[in-house]
Description:
about 375 residues; 15 helices; 11 strands
Amino acid sequence: MRPYYNTSTGDKCYQSVTDSLNESLADLHRQAEQCTITCRDDVHAMRLVAGLELRAIANLYKRARDMSTPITEYTDRVIQNVETVIVGKRPQIELLMVALLCQGHVLIEDVPGTGKTMLARATAASMGVSFGRLQCTPDLLPNDITGVSVFNQKTNTFDFRPGPVFVNVLLTDEINRATPRTQAALLEAMQERQATADGVTRPLPAPFLVMATQNPIEYEGTFPLPEAQLDRFLIRLSLGYPEADDEVRMLRKLRKQHPIETVEQVVDGTDLIHLHDAITDVHVDESLERYILAIVRATRSHPDLALGASPRGSLALYKTAQALSALRDRDYVIPDDIKTLVPLALAHRLIVKPESQLRGRTAEAILGEILERTELDIGDLA
């Protein structure tokens, strides 16, 4: 029972389980010794001891698994709070938490009105961190993002007025409507977690998450994101339309007051920094490391792809698998974690050849075929 977190709360929880295990085994040994006195068959006594020990270990292991770890407790509280605003989208909320745990950025491609802005606002409010919204337009300038220095006549100095990028959660709405020059300013913030204005570079607050949206239907008057910027997004999501029952629940929730107005803070957003360090302790078996690389390398040689996934894609798949495992209360990655995240972490990094697009080929379909063909080599079990 190796814990995957290093916080004081987790260590105490693990230690208490270990102490209980030792105490229970000591009691069982005493019971077994008493039984041995009455048992003429020593072999039977040994089997009795072994059976009692295994039963104790199983019970205590179940107790340990039932105890919420700091990561699971943290994410569950945020997810449940966000679900009071966003109805029926728990898988997408969980994936957003995966990105937060990895300190990565999220690209959301969806039609208007599906709750993208509310998702960002509810997440920021649940963690008690600052939130900013940036509506991208063709006339948006880099200084509109990073900030500008304004001359102060009283002090005869220039005072810096921070732009909307100096927040913890930044919603960049319709990012593909901004010009490449403005997108470049956002690129520095996403990758370096800093912003440069008037020749001065300033660090951004931590944690820092960019949630960018773009409409997959309307492309008139837009500037497609370059591959270099798409590669900076950890995952790409789509909320989609709600189910019929969920939409009915949404209508009832909005009958009087929007639930976003009553969302309260349930966790401390600064704890994300410590939880990110704990994510790195999640075990990834060597066979799964080879499995990740086999999938990524297959995209680079696929005949329908003009560009495969970069090494940054391999790292994104590796980190998100660790975070998803921790979110699901495991200290080890399983193959299903990787399969779940492959289309989310890799699809937006691929470029399908034009002739393949004419045949209806998509990056998601190609990744699905690669997953079917790629075998997991678990080595020699002997």
